[in-house]
Amino acid sequence: MPRLEAERGRLHALIFEDPEKTLAAVRQLKGEGFEVRDVYSPFPIHGMDEALGLRETRLAYATLIGGLLGGLGKLAFQTWVHVVDWPYNIGGKPDLAFPALVPVTFELAVLFAAFATIGTLFVGRRLWPRWRSEKAADQPHPRVTDDRFAVMVLERDGSFAPGHFRRLSAGLGPEEVIEGWRVL
Amino acid sequence: MSAIGHSLSASQPLILGDPGYGAITHDVAGSLEGRPGTAWWAAFLVAASALGVGVVAIGYTIAVGIGTWGLNRTVGWGFDITNFVFWVGIGHAGTLISAILLLLRQRWRTSIARAAEAMTIFAVMCAALFPFIHMGRPWLAFWMGPYPNTRGSLWVNFRSPLVWDVFAISTYFTVSLLFWYLGMVPDFGTLRDRTRGLKQRIYGWLSLGWDGSARTWQRYEKACLLMAGLATPLVVSVHTIVSFDFATSVIPGWHTTIFPPYFVAGAVFSGFAMVITLLMVTRKVMHIEYLITDKHLEQMAKVLLTTGMLVGFAYTTELFTAWYSGNMYERFTFMNRAMGPYAWAYWLMFCCNVFVPQVFWSKRLRHSAAVLFVGSLLVNVGMWFERFNIVVTSLHRDYLPSSWSHYVPTLTEVGILVGSFGLFFTCFLLFVRVAPVVAFHEVKHTLAQQREEARHAAA
Q1: What is the DSSP code string of B331-388?
Q2: Which of B96, B168, B378, B445 has a CB 3.0–4.6 Å from the CB of A43, allowing a cystine?
Q3: Is residue A46 scored above 70 in pLDDT?
């Protein structure tokens, strides 16, 4: 759910039974100047990002930063251990035996990158354990995690034509239209 | 979408008979909501008993010491390291299916990825058990980690392959676990919305408040791709590092540069065999043959054929290199493998891994349930013996004939091996009862794409 604290208005939900109709509905509603706030679906719909005009996610930067921190940090630590803190002659090999430090450096880079990716996703999308699922109550239809698709249209004061909205949505072939599902 | 993937999906659907999105949820989630049948209880009883045998054998080992094993001064690694490498290898198929096939956009992975990932987690748990008890004093296992201590600090030696192994296996386990859980979050959301009471609270907690919003899906898909991109080099690095345990030593038969690719190919080979065995049983018990179709099994049989030939190539390359090196110790080791006291193990390995997979050239045999099942079991027998050959036969006749020895496992070691299978199957059976064994959001996505393609073909 996008953060709606700053929004005022009524939220309408159009419930569909298949992804193609959902995508077509989003395109048409947006084309007619309606504000589509969000779409709920049981699986990602191909082309929905563009239809909603979502910006490309920058999640990969988190992965990169995590990987660099883990890799460089571990390389520095290993160097410090074997060169500074306790140099130890093992089989006459040099203290700074760089190739031998690569495997552990690589593993730590991957480990930190993975944690950074998942951590950023979870925190950014507010995914964390809740005993009482407040988000479930935010779903316009109980089956949007099963086999239903919901398109959320925001009605702001003034700039919304209810008659036009009704005619248009009826033509999109929804299973159900929930007008004023939530007043914000 | 690659050309191969496209032509396959066009010729033969990945999901049979278009069941509809709701039916997929119903069938997969429904099996979690009902009570387990007699088949499940029978399997669980067997697995838990095997686990019990393992607990006794491990308890005895820890109480008395590793003198209870058949190891001796010459053969310092036996069943323990054989089993360790065997189980790590099993795990690799899961990551290959979930990560590498995702990057290659092979959609046939969706039905089987979840079960294969679960298999990875449990196999790595079994693998980690062996070095742990081989320490003899497992309560000092924390010495393997670099932590500030009152002895200096005396750090671990980061230049040692055994330390690399600690980092490789623990990273592999952690990242696989994260990836597995990430994949299950939307499915836990579905289960939360289907269940009531305590179950709903637990699934709700596990689903992290999943809502299926388009914005969440966008980030989620990206995160899955990034994790796949991380897991792909990771899985290659893990078995490479496992092979370094051998390859960086100076023991003839271990000290070869072919080991990393040879080990990775072998790992994928044995892992896919285990996936076939497991999924053939799972789909039968859960009645989801329309999701895990013969085509999925056929694809995996092709992977077996390919990787089987890769390991066959590695075996022959090893023999050639031993001869071509002109090194008498290297030559002797391989002559001893093929004709010495453990020759039966060598030829068992060779037959199971090189000859058996050749039956999968035939499409008819790839579709035969009996052939696939027996074939996949034989491959795993062969791959277990491959590790036994590498570990034991390279050691038992070393440079000095006066120190030559023979290794026979004791009942305790056999008990631990049985126990590791028990642990693996107990975990897997519990998993199929509490989490969706098929990733339904991914399968529904595949179904949507399949419908779209059918429409395009009709138009």
Answers
A1: HHHHHHHHHSTTHHHHHHHHIIIIIGGGGGGSHHHHT-HHHHHHHHHHHHHHHHHHHH
A2: B445
A3: yes
CB contacts under 8 A, A 34-93 vs B, are 38-46, 48-49, 52, 54, 57, 59-60, 63, 67, 77-78, 81-82, 85-86, 88, 90, 93
What strands, in cross-sheet order, belong to the sheet with A149-155? A35-40, A149-155, A10-16, A176-183
Quick check: A135 contacting B, CB < 8 Å? Answer: yes
Residue B77 has pLDDT above 70, yes or no: yes
Q: What is the DSSP string of B146-191?
A: ----TTSS----TTSHHHHHHHHHHHHHHHHHHHHHHHHHHHHHHH
Helix (H, G, I), strand (E, B), or coil: what is residue A177? strand
3-state secondary structure of A11: strand
Determine the average pLDDT of the residues in B22-39. Answer: 80
Q: Do A147 and B213 touch (CB under 8 A)?
A: no
Question: What digits encode the pLDDT tens for the residues A75-116?
Answer: 999 999 999 998 988 888 888 889 999 999 999 999 999 999
Q: Give the mean model confidence (pLDDT) for residues B416-431.
A: 94
Residues of A in contact with B222 (CB under 8 A): 57, 59-60
B1 interface with A at CB cutoff 8 Å: no
Using only the alpha carbons of chain B, give its radius of gyration: 23
Closest CA to B167 of A70, A96, A95, A118: A70
Q: Cβ separation of B158 and A78 shorter than 8 Å?
A: yes
Residue B295 to residue A147: CA distance in whole angstroms: 25
**Is A113 near chain B, with CB under 8 Å?**
yes
CB-nearest partner of A114 from B178, B220, B451 = B178
Residue B258 corresponds to which tokens in the numbers above? 């072919």
Dihedral sign from CA coordinates of A141, A145, A147, A149: positive
Burial A12-30 (b: 16+ CB within 10 A, else e): bbbbbbbbbbbbebbbbbe
Whether chain B has a CB inside 8 Å of the CB on A103: the answer is yes
Tell me how far apart the alpha carbons of residues A11 and A183 are, in angstroms, rounded to a whole number: 6
Nearest to B158 among A82, A124, A147 (CB): A82
Query: Is B62 within 8 Å of B396 (Cβ atoms)?
Result: no
For B210-260, what is each residue's pLDDT tens digit? 888 888 899 999 999 999 999 999 999 999 999 999 999 888 889 989 999
The domain spans of chain A are 6-42+143-183, 59-124
Q: B residues 363-382 near A, CB within 8 Å?
A: none
Q: What ipTM goes with this model? A: 0.90
Model confidence, pTM: 0.91
Comparison of pLDDT for A60 and B104, the residue scoring more: A60
B25 neighbourhood in chain A, CB within 8 Å:
42, 146-147
Q: What is the CATH number of domain A6-42+143-183?
A: 3.30.70.1110
Q: Is A181 on the interface with B (CB under 8 A)?
A: no
Q: Pick A160 or B215 by higher pLDDT.
A: B215
Retrieve residue B420's tokens: 């590791």
| CB nearest to B192's CB, from A38, A39, A133 | A133
Chain B residue with minimal CA distance to A52? B214
Query: What pLDDT, in 10s, does the model give residues A138-159?
Result: 778 888 888 888 888 888 777 7
Residues A87 and B154 sit within 8 Å (Cβ to Cβ) = no
- Confidence (pLDDT) at B339: 93
